[in-house]
Amino acid sequence: MNQPGAVPQQLDAVVVGAGFSGLYLLHRLRQLGFSVKVFDSASDVGGTWYWNRYPGARCDIPTTDYTYSFDPELEKEWTWSEKYATQPEILDYLRFVADRYGLRSDIEFSTSVTSARWDEGERRWRLTTDRNQQLRCRYYIMASGCLSMPKSPDIEGADRFAGQVYFTSRWPQERVDFTGRRVAAIGTGSSGIQSIPLIAEQASQLTVFQRTPNFSIPADNGPAPADRLKRLGEDRDGYRLSARWSRGGIPVETTDILGVTASEAVRRQRFEAAWGQGELFGILGVFADQVVNPASNEIVAEMIREKIRSIVKDPETAEALCPQDHYFGTKRPCLDTGYFETYNLPHVRLVDLRKQPITSITEQGIETPDESFEFDAIVYATGFDAMTGALVAVDVAMGGGLSLKDKWAGGPSTYLGLMTVGFPNFFMITGPGSPSVLSNMAVSIEQHVDWVVGCLKDMRDEGFETIEPTPLAESGWDQHVRDCAAITLYPTANSWYMGANVPGKPRVFLPYIGGVDAYRRACDEVVAQGYLGFQMAGPGGEQCRDGVIRRMQPDVAMVLEMMAELGLPPLETLPVADARAFMTAIAATRPPSPEVGEVTDGVMPGPDGDLPYRLYRPAAPPEGPHPVVVYFHGGGWVLGDLDSDDPLCRDLCARTAAVVVSVNYRHAPEARFPAAAEDAFAALRWVDANASELGGIPGQLAVAGWSAGGNIAAVACQKARDAGGPDISGQLLITPVVDSQMTRPSFSENGDGYILTGALMRWFWDHYADPADRGDPGVAPLRGNLDGLPPVCIVTADFDPLRDEGVAYARALEAAAVPVRHVRARGHTHTSVTMVGVVISGAPVRAEMAEALRGFFPAPVRASRTAG
Ligand code: N01
Description:
Blueprint: E1 10-16, H1 20-31, E2 36-39, H2 48-51, H3 72-77, H4 87-100, E3 107-108, E4 113-119, E5 124-129, E6 134-142, E7 164-167, E8 182-186, H5 190-202, E9 205-210, E10 216-218, H6 226-234, H7 236-244, H8 264-277, H9 280-283, H10 294-311, H11 315-321, E11 334-336, H12 339-342, E12 348-352, E13 360-361, E14 365-367, E15 372-374, E16 377-380, H13 389-393, E17 395-398, H14 404-407, E18 426-428, H15 441-462, E19 466-469, H16 471-486, H17 516-528, E20 534-538, E21 541-545, H18 554-566, H19 576-588, E22 598-606, E23 609-617, E24 626-632, H20 646-656, E25 659-663, H21 675-689, E26 696-706, H22 708-723, E27 730-734, H23 745-750, H24 758-768, E28 792-799, H25 803-815, E29 820-829, H26 843-856
Parallel strand pairs: 1-2, 1-6, 2-3, 4-17, 6-18, 7-16, 8-9, 8-16, 9-12, 10-11, 24-25, 24-26, 26-27, 27-28, 28-29
Antiparallel strand pairs: 4-5, 5-6, 13-14, 14-15, 19-20, 20-21, 22-23, 23-25
């Protein structure tokens, strides 16, 4: 071990942590000629695998993948003995890596960095260790691991117990023998679930104190999986590449089968295959929708519960072991070897803390309201202050200024999980806001290290000495991390992913759930765009490329990617009949729409023949009559019908408890301007006159429309005002067409690639209106008289060519003293907010639309149910 005096004063980089990340960082940085020192509080390499020596500790990603991949020679020299290696074997591997690359000479063991101060004048970090060493370094890199700071025991009396106390996260180096002892185990996360069966093998009596039952599947440990070995043998590089570009950092077959629509046979077959395979990403991917759809998730969850009930003989114990309070996967599921079977042993007992909480720990054991337990040993498997705990444990601060702990008091804020504003040259490996704990850590660590090392090299080459993200880039990334989590079920659980396991910790979803592949793409794009979102300075000058790397809602981006993969011809290149047939075919592939009370079709008289309509009646309560919303579908006056916007109409009806009357108007090119607008006005009048018969409250009439439907809705309101009726309570215009001028910036920004293109919009205009008519307020309501119009809720979307005309309409209406509620659909396209059941991130926007609609009516109507 190095002596304190041997530490150089000036270093290029200091790394905290000598686990998987720190070792690889040291190797890479040294290769590039940087001077580096690694500090670790442990007496050897290994990081998490140094500390977590508890019985049964193993990895839960197959060793074929839980391994370094940066050096093919290293891969040839090391062979793992099993599918899931034990902690001693993984520690041996990391020692082998340290020795093979001669890393130990630059690692200072049994030493912790205690404080870090940025010296702005020197552009360096000044670090202090617990051995009172003072260091200066250009770059300070935390490779301290996501699950390395044990959670302190938050149980009354924990320090009173006179017997032996063990923490799975700080297990002693020497062998612990529980033979003949009465042991308590507190905690049933991965550490508890792995250790409990082995403790039970020795203990004379084992009592497990369980607060939350956890989902666990059999690891099916044994030799490394044959299919993975085969693929690796045939094409190691290809295999590693596919891991790097996979969702979780391990190649798995993905599915597009939805749990909610799959047959019972398919459900069972897929579940049993995943159960038998014994891999986390297999059971997490039984169905494509199990992460986002509660019903689909429940199918998997219940099948796991069935397994638990079939294994555990005592029905009461079995029931207590069945997780019921969180969706499967939203707390990290476990892989086990004989965990549930352990409860069939006569000397093992489960105490359900939900029924019988711990009141205190005493000198002899554990007290609950009903019982006093005596123990010789207590094992705490109570988890970690995950992802942020180790980072804020070091007193990191700007020279005398804000500390990282203060900055993150309300939850961490990072750019890409790599850096944070206000802390130049401070890097995190697998920090919050990166895939980290949701992925195969080996792959994510290599990606982060490669990124950081590449960045430092680029800076050196360009003559930059400092790097820091911009506030805009960081807040944009934080938003994206939140957006990705928000479309999943994960934030609903009291998990350590949410910081919920540590009292007082802010409830924020900590990792990035968008996937290893999506994340890698974002990181690569940042570099390709000249370090977008970073500012750099040094003798080479100053550079700041401010911007946000991901502004689109993640599920919107997914839909666009899927459509791009289909390689469909642009609609405007098709004959109208084919374009309509295409829209019908697309509508047939949609997931089930929200339920409403009743749906009936009918016809109403129009100016030139009958107009078909579909009436959506809300489910009771409340009993009718209800306010009425007349709705006009989108489709550029050319496409669309009663089916095309059916899910949106159901959603509006369910959310507002209003009767929605969707009207099919005449389409172009068969019926050109002003046919559609005339039909819309006629429909309004007819519904108004027949409100009672339709189940509506007379006089409580609003109008709504999407896209071209928004156009004719807006025009109909102007017509109604001019005609002295009907009286309209309000208008909901969803990404409407309100002008014919296609020169606003949103057309150039968003005119291509977001489904509604500039070319398609021109095609619509050409079918609907002669150029000479396009300035007429009957087709361009923005150019009309806006005085005295009913209140408006207008929705505009960031990635919509029509965005700026929508914004202009909102402003013009405000200027005309019309009450306006402007809903900006952040990260959405022209079409995405209407994609009910497909684009989950549209739900909050639709909730806002519904709230606006309800607000148009005099007596607020409460939603009968919320729709997805
Ligand atoms: O910790 P945990 P862990 N009174 O937080 C309970 C990784 N890992 O060390 O759920 C009573 O998951 C707590 O209850 P609750 C893996 O990512 C990987 O097991 O908060 N009980 C829970 O049951 C894993 O997810 C491997 O209600 C209390 C348990 O303690 C992560 O590390 C192996 C309590 C803590 O579970 C953390 O796992 C091990 C209290 N006061 C770990 N406080 C591999 O296989 C907490 N609990 C690679």
